[in-house]
Write a structure and sequence with these properties.
By secondary structure, the chain is α+β, with helices and mostly antiparallel strands. The protein is built from 10 helices and 28 strands.
Amino acid sequence: MNDNLSFKNIFKRETKLATYIVICMTIVVLSLSYAMFFKIDGNSKNQVVEAGDLVFTYENSSQTITSDGKESCFMPMSAEETKLYLGTCDYKLSVQNTGSLKGAYTLRLIANETNTIEANKLKVVLRKQEGESFQVVNGYENGKTVSELTDGILIEDEEMEQNSTTVYSVSLIIDESVATEEDTSKVLSYKIEGTGLVHESQDIHTDKTAAETILAKGETEELKFDRTTDNNLRYVGFDPNNYVSFNNELWRIIGVFNNIDDGTGKKETRLKIIRNEPIGKYSWDNKATGIGSSDSETGSNDWSDSALQIVLNEGAYWNRTSGDCPNGSNGATTSCDFSTNGLTEEAKSMISDAKWNLGGLSDSSSDDDSYRTEVTSAWYSYERGTTVYSGRPTEWIGSIGLMYVSDYGYATSGGSTTNREKCLNTELWNWANSDVSDCKNNDWLYDSSSQQWTLTPLSSYSSAVFIVYSSGYAYYYSAYYHSAVSPAIYLNSNVKISGGEGTEDSPFTLSL
């Protein structure tokens, strides 16, 4: 007997269901310009929840939906059957902005603890009212299942004009093509969590600093705290929504970093960003013997007088002009033109000095700090430590640096075979291995087409610096070799996110 057909017949001939649905509508509203309060209207069949000027109205007074009296709505259905029941089996929710300022809201679908049915068996039908009719946002055919929603998000950062109302219709449909007879004994229980924000300014993003805006999102599928002593919040995954428009081009947010010293001892929480595409391939350093910290023709791994550092912070890139860039040993150069992609004055106004740590790791297998044996958290600690080549500084104060090896490691989300926890507990030296390929393949900082320079030096040699190799593991290069250069900076602590969704097509925009 076909399990799907048998299951469907059971539902259609029984008067009561073993599987039941409860959708709890929970609204958590943050308001910066109004005191928060809640009001329940008990004299109507609707439940009204108010927070400041944002008003959420529910269809029924109990704020829940159950299968009682609507058993037919919760049978396994095909796409055609779903269309017949949408008018009677959906649940309506309205979001109203009664004030004179703009607002924004997000709706998420979240499984309750009592839920036991698989998310891939539930089709989400979401419709939005346009005029007199409802238009499908996510439908049964070619639409998403619950398991395919990113962090359960139905609607994200939807902007609301002042004095406006938006009405949604939400349905969860059991997909008959994958439902089985065993599901008759399972419980389905979900809630929709709404978050909203009303601002003091017409620009819905400008009340918080950029760091505060990202921190307010908390941990999601694409944002994870790194659990270091600084507990930074980082973007993770293959292609998270961390795009930002900076310097009239695409950059990406590495994360929100705590305890960033501005060089005066003042510590702040700041956003760290990196250019989406390299500005070219150049030597990290190639000073000739006896020049600066270099004791050979292959350059030095002291970032404080690195030839590349000078290009980025004082030379052609900083001044948005053309010039010479390090390329090869013994001071060799190549022409580089940054007249169209060097830093603009507006971009410079959004960045300032930060203290960059210059600690490194050793190549000696007998040393405790051998890079071959260290996982991401250890790299983070050593980068902020004092292990350097003899005479090298452990810190540098300046504006433009590069990513660290640990930035690369923490950017993974892992995958179905190797999860994030296992990736973070696998030595970065071993990330090229096929049995942990999920680590690099679900890391947005990984580039299979080129080696990428980092700021992390090899402490046991005078002129070696770590790169993220094109095959995915951390290895070191002589500083005079040429590799991809992607500038990284810490934004000023007062920079704000003024718009955008963080996607490649709609990146976050910045303002002061």
